[in-house]
Amino acid sequence: MCVAQTLQSDFNPRAQGFRVCSPEFAAQRVHIAREALPLDFSDVNKRKYRRRKNREMRANIRAAFILFILFVAAFAAFKMHDAARERENDATLERAKAAAEEQADDAKVSVNLPQPLHSAYYILLRLPQDGNGFEGKESWMDLPATPADARLKPYLHNRIMMEKGPDERIFPASMTKILTALTVLEHIPDLNRKITISDKNFHYYYADGAAIAGYRAGDTASLLDLLYGLMLLSGSECASVLAEETAGGEEAFAALMNGKAAEIGMTSSHFTNPVGLHNEENYSTVSDIAVLLDYALQNRTFAEIFTSELYTAAPVGSHPDGLTMRNHIFRDEESEPEASTPGGTAAPDSDTGSLLGGKTGFLDEAGQCLASLLSKGDVRFILVTAAAMPRNARTQSLHIDDMRTVLGSIKVFPAS
Questions:
Q1: Quick one: which of 253, 161, 241, 229 has its CA closest to 199?
Q2: What is the dihedral of CA 144, 147, 153, 156, to 10 degrees?
Q3: What is the mean pLDDT of the chain?
Q4: Checking CA distances to 80, which of 155, 227, 300, 391 falls within 20 to 30 Å?
Q5: How far apart, in Å, are the Cα atoms of 248 and each of 49, 244, 252, 394, 402?
Q6: Higher pLDDT residue, 134 or 342?
Q7: Are 115 and 379 a contacting pair, CB within 8 Å?
């Protein structure tokens, strides 16, 4: 036996007069003793504690003061913005009044439909006669700073020649591409930028049978050529690659589209893709599409594309002689009989009118749609029709029929 064991075995607490208790009892007594001890800080600890509390209180006071200053600044900025908007509304009202007075001296226009249109919803908007083409004209979006402002509605409505369900929700189909083209033009100024098309840009074609302009994977085309392919041939591969080039991806591009739509006053629209394929969240109204087209036509490049019947893109790998594009809306328009101008009590302008440009759209859910620019006499019009439901979309062009009906029913009387 070792020495430690010997000592341990020889030690007897009871024999030495010690009181022996269980470990549980000892732990309990220690706990009670600790509870009974008063919390006593030393002077140094007390000073540290007070300094820490003072620092925390001063920090809280500073934070509260900063929040108060930020609140006051935000409130002041809001009031300044509100005052500026009120001044802008007053100025807008004066411009609207002046425009209405000027329009009183313009040619008189009346519209009398000889028959109901096939389209469920439509709007006909008269553009100002300023002789300056598309740029520099007063846009109807310059009129209503707040569209609900009752002071401005009479002047805005002076531009609307007729309408049916202007604020009813529609699926815009390929009329969406108007906003696609406008968004690209406002974010990429270099029309000669070269862009290469890849296989992934054909996913709308492979998945949904969407229209394509005729490019192939590996082709490198200019941004301008792709915009013509987008608008004249409704090319889904052009929409996809342009969205990717502009925003890095189609989801990010849709966010840009929605931002632009909100900026120009398309208050009842939302877009999820650059092509216009059916999605319950890809919707608009004929009134919003008219707002969009009126705004887009102020961009000269867009106006040139929109009003082009024929365009030949530069040669690419799959088209060594160049890719010829023709807007089929002009083919459809030419296939119909010549429009006649209805008679009236006074002699209107003998001009039968003409189609200057347009963007069609069709989906089973959307029906046949058309956003078009028309001319009659010296007056230009924007016509948007939607939800014309043909029995056979391949043989019937009800949206073109409606456009020709409207154009033929417009009477333009020379200004006195």
A1: 241
A2: 50
A3: 80
A4: 155
A5: 56, 5, 7, 36, 39
A6: 134
A7: no
The alpha carbon dihedral of 182, 187, 190, 195 has a sign of negative
Distances (CA, A) of 398 to 82, 197, 360, 367, 374: 47, 34, 11, 9, 17
What number of residues does the chain have?
416
**Structure letter (DSSP) for residue 151:** T
Considering only residues 347 and 169, tell me which one the structure prediction assigns the higher pLDDT.
169
Top-confidence residue, 49 or 44 = 49
Predicted confidence band of residue 180 (pLDDT cuts 50, 70, 90): very high
**All domains of the chain, ordered by start, with CATH?**
106-413 (3.40.710.10)
**Are the CB atoms for 257 and 237 separated by under 8 Å?**
no
- Give residue 207's region: left, alpha or beta (phi > 0; psi -120 to 50): alpha
CB atoms within 10 A of CB 194: 11
CB atoms within 10 A of CB 297: 25
- In tens, the pLDDT along 373-410 reads 999 888 899 999 999 988 876 677 899 999 999 999 99
pTM of the prediction?
Answer: 0.69
Three-state secondary structure of 278-312: CCCCCEECHHHHHHHHHHHCCCHHHHHHHCCCEEE
Which pair of structure tokens corresponds to residue 378? 């010296």
